[in-house]
């Protein structure tokens, strides 16, 4: 790599290098950042601060309109067990999972907390979209 240093008196103020060398440096910086980010995520996983989810569960979540059942089953809970943790009836939870009832904000928050998830994680895709649309300013 050939670099031309431009000085102001004795102080270097610019470094001029060929454009291809510049592009190579940018790529190396991006690679270094990616490596650092991967190491930080790995460390969080090792400390138990980050959760890994099997690919088949991720694909099921992506394909599903109603993620609550998938998360409940992934956490190894029956409807009855989750309902008991949340303090609601099994039938109410079943109706929420199937989309026959939407569930109050308070109940949905308690369900998310019982599953160690965010509210967004358990809400049906269509309802998340409605919330996002409602929050978007009208221009």
Task: Report low-confidence residues grouped into runs of 5 or more.
Answer: none
What is the architecture of the largest domain at the second tier of CATH?
A: Orthogonal Bundle
Shape: elongated
Stated plainly, the CATH topology of the largest domain is called 434 Repressor (Amino-terminal Domain)
Largest sheet: 2 strands, antiparallel
CATH first level of the largest domain: which class?
Mainly Alpha
CATH superfamily of the largest domain: lambda repressor-like DNA-binding domains
Number of domains: 2
Describe, in plain words, how this protein is organized in 3D.
This protein is 62% helix and 8% strand. The chain is mainly α. The chain has two domains: 4-46; 55-135, 434 Repressor (Amino-terminal Domain) (Orthogonal Bundle). Strands 1-2 form a two-stranded antiparallel sheet. Strand 1 and strand 2 form a beta hairpin. The chain is elongated.
In short:
By secondary structure, the chain is mostly helical.
Characteristic terms for this protein:
139 residues; mainly alpha; 434 Repressor (Amino-terminal Domain); two-stranded antiparallel sheet; 8 helices; 2 strands; elongated
Annotate the secondary structure layout.
Blueprint: E1 4-8, E2 11-16, H1 19-46, H2 55-63, H3 68-74, H4 79-86, H5 90-98, H6 105-114, H7 119-122, H8 125-135
Antiparallel strand pairs: 1-2
Helix pairs in contact: 4-5, 4-6
């Amino acid at each position: 790599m050939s670099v031309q240093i431009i000085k102001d008196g004795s102080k270097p103020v610019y470094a001029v290098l060929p454009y291809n060398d510049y592009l190579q440096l940018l790529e190396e910086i991006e690679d270094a950042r990616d490596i650092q980010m991967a190491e930080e995520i790995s460390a969080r996983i090792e400390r138990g601060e980050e959760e890994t989810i099997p690919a088949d569960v991720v694909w099921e979540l992506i394909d599903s309109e109603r993620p609550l059942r998938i998360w409940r089953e992934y956490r190894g809970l029956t409807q009855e067990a989750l309902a008991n943790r949340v303090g609601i009836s099994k039938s109410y939870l079943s109706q929420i999972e199937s989309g026959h009832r939407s569930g109050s904000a308070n109940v949905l928050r308690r369900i998310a907390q019982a599953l160690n998830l965010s509210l967004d994680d358990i809400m049906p895709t269509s309802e998340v979209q409605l919330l996002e649309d409602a929050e978007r300013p009208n221009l």
